[in-house]
Amino acid sequence: MKLLFLSQSLLIGFLPLATAFPSAMLAAAANDPGVLKRAEEISKLLKERQAGADAATGVFEPLNTFNAKAQYVNVSKGSGHEYVAPGPNDLRGPCPGLNAFANHNFLPHNGYASVSQYIDATTKVVGMGPILSVFLSAYGGAIDGDILNWSMGGTPSLTQGGVTGVLGNGLIGSHNKYEGDASPTRPDLYQSGNNYKTVTSQFQEMIDYSPGGEVTLDSLTSFRSHRFDTQISSNPKFFNGPFTGVLVQPAAYTFIYRFMANHSAEFPAGRLSYDVIQSWFGVQGSNGQYNAVQGTERIPENWYRRAIEYPYEVEYFNADLLAAATLHPKFLDIGGNTGTTNSFTGVDVSDFTGGVFNSKTLLDGNNLGCFVYQLAAQAKPDAVLGVLTQLTNAVGNIIGKLGCPQLQAIDDAQLSQFPGYSQKPVY
Ligand code: HEM
Ligand SMILES: *[C@@H]1O[C@H](CO)[C@@H](O)[C@H](O)[C@H]1NC(C)=O
Ligand SMILES: *[C@@H]1O[C@H](CO)[C@@H](O)[C@H](O)[C@H]1NC(C)=O
Ligand SMILES: CC(=O)N[C@H]1CO[C@H](CO)[C@@H](O)[C@@H]1O
């Protein structure tokens, strides 16, 4: 049995974050006493079936605070953020949000950026909460780059990333570490040979799952369930990883509504029309005759981001994660197909985590949040996590805040039975 011991600093909890981060906001969020109360409220709504996948919306966005001036994102001509299509030397990858940011010069146009630049863009342009943003951005540095900088596409060339660019393989090269299976519009790596090009038919299916002209969190959650089942029945190497399946996969679905929807006084929590999602995903043509062109993701003109008062922070994301898993418990099944289609086998959560978590209590309190963020370490078993200060601080900040039971070790040998895990990707 191979045990991975998590570094001491990961377990301590509150460590100061680097000064570059918006520390006042972080401190305010970390001291918020309402976290558990809100989790209870949401699980009550779900148990009583008074709400669906969007149960968290009313709890986290109780008031209409729409402010057109503050939420408007100006991408019109002369703004400095007009759309510029990527050239052949620009890095673009599986994330439509980051691709769009680079196309609009909210991130460097070549697609290679520093952790601070990712934090700045995600918090300002779409209202990602600072703690979630620091975590996702720092994780990119640790997994995909050289800690300070990373590529949103593939491996940067020397000219794209300078001498520091040679260490990481970018988001495209992070299969099972950041990038995973059953994505909304991207294919599974071991089934299709690529993990980042938008598949037109998958985009069309997402629209078909969302009748009535708009895409909602409910429609996206049903679509995710369908994608999950489709990949089990078609990809012999389908793998639902502990981190990529349980944390990144839900983000790939909830971010669509939470970050891409347009906001207005009438729809303060957002309304995501076909036109708006089409632009964000870089899809040409019209319903029934779409043509997706990965890399051309675009922020629509006249678009209003989420409310300034209600950033999409860790607890909000966790609540969405919990709601989706309550509706479809299979989302939490860590495991995969064993080499043939429809052979999905799950690992025992309790065995996997040395008894700290088990599948029966995973949906209680903050257990699910604690589980997934501590698993962030699992994705980079070869690293001495103690030296990855940015990442360990970010994870420590989250698990300290959630009051987590301490995960001492992960038995990742259990995953070796899955070809989708044991096969090493070639980049
Ligand atoms: C630093 C912040 C971010 C990081 C590190 C990140 C990383 C990733 C990664 C690794 C994937 C691939 C996941 C998979 O295999 O399914 C992904 C997909 C995705 N991301 Fe991001 N992302 C970030 C911010 C954003 C933002 C701000 C948005 C929305 C504006 C966004 C929207 C999406 C969507 C919709 C997908 C799924 C694409 C598809 O398969 O259809 N992301 N992101
Ligand atoms: C958006 O930017 C353009 C170019 O700078 C400017 O002319 C326009 O007034 C701006 N729009 C708003 C609503 O601020
Ligand atoms: C966003 O909503 C406002 C208010 O309804 C509308 O004027 C604007 O055109 C919408 N933007 C997009 C991109 O649909
Ligand atoms: C090559 C490159 O872009 N390096 C950058 C990495 O990040 C640091 C810190 O933000 C920058 O100073 C470098 O220029």
UniProtKB/TrEMBL annotation:
Q: Which domain of life is it from?
A: Eukaryota
Pfam families in alphabetical order: Peroxidase_2 (PF01328)
- Required cofactor names: heme b
Tell me the PROSITE patterns matching this sequence.
Answer: HEME_HALOPEROXIDASE
Which GO molecular-function terms appear in the entry?
Answer: metal ion binding; peroxidase activity
Q: Is Iron given among the entry's keywords?
A: yes
Which UniProt keywords are present, listed alphabetically? Heme, Iron, Metal-binding, Oxidoreductase, Peroxidase, Signal
Q: Where is the signal peptide?
A: 1-20
Family statement: Belongs to the chloroperoxidase family.
Q: By what name is this protein known?
A: Heme haloperoxidase family profile domain-containing protein
Q: Which organism is it from?
A: Clohesyomyces aquaticus
| Species classification | Eukaryota, Fungi, Dikarya, Ascomycota, Pezizomycotina
